[in-house]
Design a protein that fits this description.
Elements (H helix, E strand, L loop, with lengths): L1 H4 L4 E2 H7 L8 H16 L5 E4 L10 E4 L2 H4 L7 H13 E3 L3 H8 L13 E3 L4 H11 L3 E5 L2 E13 L2 E8 L2 E6 L8 E2 L13 H7 L10 E7 L1 H11 L2 E4 L5 E7 L2 H9 L5 E5 L1 H17 L1
Parallel strand pairs: 4-5
Antiparallel strand pairs: 1-3, 2-3, 6-7, 6-10, 7-8, 8-9, 11-13, 11-14, 12-13
């Protein structure tokens, strides 16, 4: 946060000059700046102001500052809670060492010897616009799959190493993999999006793409080996049987055979279709044709 990092209060012109947050000091950028201040204040962050003195052209203007005391929280964490929080923050990071600042704001310290990093979660530039669209309930527009999409955003979530946008396009729930967006995200006017129920990430992932396609719906039974069993159960549910070796048999509704094949083959030889027989024959024939072509 630029204002918090500055040792002295800054004027509007200094903020424009020292950062790339605003294109210029014109009316449009100033309007965005005022909106940003309002959003911070609405989230509980106090912005301190002071009038610029003197007799030069800046006199009478305003300088702005955010103090550490305005963004640091006192959650009165126990030692055990602090250690658990620090371990979690050290094992999963969003970009460079964000957890140090976040832990300080939550009133927690830093582990003397952090555990090894388990995951480094990237933060695509499109996330800023998408979260803005969610917060302000705006329609989002972007190019995806060679088409211009106008969607009602519902949820941004992380699954299996990627960011996804769960949104409705023409009243149909879909997931868009954010790294596959082919353009910047443009957002419409505030409250332009149609409201839809917000699912949990696992529910959102389960909704698309297998359930949206031109085929008649059918229910497939699939045996999932232990390396993928927990993830599939978390994302899809529908467990029919748990085996002693850790594998599970799940029932999954399918409307897109192509999406089903893609999902199934993504698990390699750790997933086997058991039922219905017509689907078993179709998958077997498809694989035989691929092998024959090679």
């Amino acid at each position: 946060m630029f204002l918090r990092a500055s040792p002295v209060p800054l004027s509007w012109s200094e903020i424009v000059r020292e950062t790339d947050l605003y294109a210029d000091d014109g009316p449009s950028s100033k309007k965005t700046f005022e909106r940003d201040k309002k959003d911070l204040r609405n989230s509980g962050v106090e912005i301190h102001t002071e009038i610029i003195g003197g007799s030069d052209e800046a006199a009478g203007g305003t300088r702005y500052a955010i103090r550490d005391s305005d963004v640091f929280l006192d959650l009165d964490l126990t030692t055990e809670e602090s250690v658990a929080l620090e371990m979690a923050a050290s094992m999963v990071q969003f970009d460079a060492a964000w957890e140090i600042d976040a832990l300080a704001k939550l009133g927690s310290g830093v582990l003397p010897t952090p555990p090894p990093l388990r995951a480094q979660l990237s933060a695509p530039d499109e996330l800023v616009a998408l979260y803005d669209a969610l917060d302000r309930k705006c329609v989002a527009t972007f190019s995806y799959g060679g088409k211009l999409r106008h969607v009602d955003p519902v949820l941004v979530f992380w699954r299996s190493g990627s960011w996804y946008l769960h949104a409705y396009e023409n009243d149909v729930a879909k997931n868009f993999k954010i790294e596959r967006l082919e353009s910047a995200v443009a957002i419409g006017r505030e409250n332009s999006a149609t409201p839809y129920p917000v699912p949990k990430p696992a529910e959102a992932m389960a909704e698309d793409p297998l359930l949206h396609g031109p085929d008649d719906a059918f229910v497939a039974q699939v045996l999932i080996d232990p390396p993928f069993a927990r993830r599939v159960e978390r994302d899809r549910g529908g467990v029919l049987r748990r085996n002693e070796d850790g594998s599970v048999v799940i029932a999954i509704e399918v409307r897109s055979l192509g999406a089903f094949r893609s999902w199934l083959f993504g698990m390699g030889d750790h997933a086997v279709v058991l039922d219905p027989p017509a689907l078993v024959d179709e998958i077997t024939s498809w694989l035989s044709a691929i092998l024959g072509a090679e």
